[in-house]
Amino acid sequence: MALLAMSASGCAASAWLMRPWFNSLSGSEQRRITALPVVGYIALGSLFVLCTILLAFSGRWTSAQLLIAVWMCHSLYGAGFEPPSAAYERLRGRLARAAPMRLAANWCGILGVLLGLSYVWEQPEYRGATLSIAASIIVAGVVASLRILARVRRLRTSLDEDAADIIRKLETLRQLPEGERDAQRDAAEAAWVKLRRTLDNRIDTGVSFSGVAVLPRPTLRELHHAVHRDIRKGGADRAAHRQLLARLRMLRMACAGRTDTLA
């Protein structure tokens, strides 16, 4: 216990001592350093899955349990490795990374179930039923995979369209005379509500407790307040207005070239 306390104190002291050095780095260098957890998660996870699959040759049941555990752990905790800083700059990577990682985790779970079914396959009287169940699981996995990929394409498209819409509304609001802004404020508010609904989604799942968020909650709250301030002031604070539009344009840039209006 004492050793654990000393280790924790040492880590905290090291972090405090290194903060000035970290703050002196450029934004790109800081992003590379803070991306190490997700890189390590992918690398170690891939190595673990590979070793688990190789284990199936000598211990199918253990391998099946471990593969299902990989699926469960990623579903519950995988999003926790996504770095929360530089959320706008990292959005393109999150959108590109979330679906493949979800598919890999899902197929680990499916492979684990199939390995478990292989024990039943050894009983001749159950082979017909086992084959039907296995085929159904594989087909369901393929369908689910296609739905996840389509979901990400639709999300990119909605995000691009909604961000473009509110940018137009905010720019129009800023250019109108004060006496004509009420209707445009309502339009900008409606555009933000639509964008907020898109941002509230998870990238790779349709449930709130699992999956990668489009933006971290603190970043989303900050954007929410910035939009409402800009609507209320009608873009009078030019610096805040330009900063807000820059963030909204970064949402669009993260989706550029990967939208699908027919998805």
Descriptive notes:
- The chain folds into 2 domains: 34-151; 155-255.
- Mean pLDDT is 83; it is low at 1-19 and 21-25.
- The chain is 77% helix and 0% strand.
- The longest helix has 49 residues, at 127-175.
- It has 263 residues and is mainly alpha-helical.
- Helix 3 (36-55) packs antiparallel against helix 4, helix 5 packs parallel to helix 9 and helix 6 runs antiparallel to helix 7.
- It starts with a helix and ends in an 8-residue tail after the last helix.
- It has helices spanning 2-24, 27-34, 36-55, 60-77, 91-121, 127-175, 182-199, 217-233, 238-255.
What gross morphology would you assign? elongated
Order of helices and strands: HHHHHHHHH
Alpha-carbon distance between the two ends: 55 Å
How large, in whole angstroms, is the Cα Rg? Answer: 24 Å
Secondary-structure class: mainly alpha
Biggest sheet, in brief? none
Helical fraction equals over 70%
Mean pLDDT: 83
Quick one: how many beta strands? 0
Question: What is the count of distinct domains?
Answer: 2
